[in-house]
Amino acid sequence: MRTVLGRPDFRLLFGALLASMAAESILLLALAIWVKDLTGSDGLAGATIFAIIAPMVLAPLVGWAVDRYPRRPFFVAANLATAALLTPLFTVSRAGDVWIIYVVAGLYGLSYLTLSAALAGLIRQLVPVELLADANGVLQTVRQGLRLVGPLAGAALYAAVGGWLLTGLAMTGFVTAAAVVALLRAPEATPADGGSRWTAELGAGLRHLAGEPALRRALLGYGLGSLVMGFTESLIFAYVDQGLRRDAAFVGVLVTVQGIGGLVGGLFSAALVRRAGEVGALATGVTLFGPAAVALAYPSIWLGFAALLLAGLSLPLITVGLNTLIQRRTPPGLLGRVVAAAEALVSGPQAISIGAGALLVGVLDYRVLFVLVGVVTTAAGVFLWRGRRLSAPPAPSVPRIPLQRRPAAGAEPEPQVAHPTR
């Protein structure tokens, strides 16, 4: 990690993302708690996350737009637009205003997809291929580390002053990110004109994912896990309410505990990618989510802390493995469309599962649903692990050392020739 942070251009990008990720960490959970407080419904609180993920159906259009513009100015504009779309939250004051939170959550989901696609291209533009796993690992370490303070601070601030102050803080974070990235002086690649019809360009990301064996396996396995992983967005509120008998704000404590596991996972994610390959890291993360979900079927606060630590450990392994695989196996000019398409293929099943979880939590015991999540994610992890050789890490290169011949008796020694480093 020190190597990639030693690059001045990446350090500047890192500082910008620190501001935007801090804004995200205090905002997302607060939106769900806000809905829970206004309506008293676990299902409606979980549906806030569904509203964020629902815009993923527009992924092909978003990716096409991202690939048509230079990465840096597009990223700056997208951050400013994200700050602006949060302003309607200042008008929310009663249960009848919940629809405003859902609309903002949907717009934020569209913005998140756009920023992710632009960021992947910007990182690929700034960082050499051999340091991509380290760059993604650094960002995930910080993102997960913010869970140590962000959600808990957000829940505490919400309990003290409501959602308006959190909205203002989040807007400040996105504006700061835009200002810092605007200072970046990286060479901009001119977006290539595909020369094809726009309908063909929209589907280029999906075609690339389907045609590349490692990416295809990764998306199939992770998509299978996502079919049930979204259940937890609603189940965690039922776990706190019905199992632990605590109020909704305690979810912030659990997410903070999850952040500790995420911090550890982020620190080791790049090393795991180098050892097991990108698909191997992804498989490890998805598999670890299984026992974590099963453990949450029993309402014990200490067992719950252990389960959330394990779940937190799994998340950066999943993200770093998948992101690095996409960045390494995709041409730069196609990266926006591929990232957006991958987000849609993963988040589509996840959105369905969040919606299904919001409905099922009202009719089935949450403990049964947690066991179901554990069984399916373990199966998905095994499927991915069996395909880990599709992205096996390359063998370390060994420098070639020329053989030295002994000079014949009485002969002059041969001059030594310096071989250039390859």
TrEMBL record:
Location of the region described as Disordered in the Swiss-Prot/TrEMBL record:
393-422
Q: Which Pfam families match?
A: MFS_1
Name where it's found. Answer: Cell membrane
Primary subcellular site in the record, as a coarse category: membrane
Superkingdom, natural source = Bacteria
Query: Keyword Membrane on this protein?
Result: yes
User: Which part of the chain is the Major facilitator superfamily (MFS) profile domain?
Assistant: 8-392
Alphabetical keyword list: Cell membrane, Membrane, Transmembrane, Transmembrane helix
Transmembrane segment boundaries: 12-35, 47-66, 99-123, 167-184, 219-239, 251-272, 279-298, 304-326, 338-360, 366-385
Q: Does the keyword Magnesium apply?
A: no
**How is this protein positioned relative to the membrane?**
Multi-pass membrane protein
State the protein's name.
MFS transporter
The organism named in the record is Micromonospora harpali
